[in-house]
Amino acid sequence: MSNSKSVVAVVDDDQRVLDSLQDLLESAGHTVRAFSSAHTLLNSNALPEIDCLITDIGMPGMDGFELKRLMSERRPGLPVILITGRHEIPEPPLAKHNRFFRKPFDGQALLAAIGDALTGKPR
Fold this sequence. Notes:
CATH superfamily: Response regulator
Number of strands: 5
Distance between the termini: 21 Å
């Protein structure tokens, strides 16, 4: 198994967002695991291989904040980047760490945040 490609999981209930993020991340050399809901990710066998998680905040069933909380229990230290199309959600403390993006976001800024998250991974 090669460590050259990092595995980024993307969770969003909007298929267009999943497709565009998958294209963006793969073009930057990442391996992508796309999921249409938090439950789909949590019930998959992908959890051990994920290096970074990008999740939408506003999703039916389980929102991104709850998914982030659960992932911090199951995979402590896993970097999580939150995205949202809802402007009524106040920016969480993560915003100052470059881990919060409002749609539409700048793809290069997101790739830079992923790079920072992957290299600054707390262990």
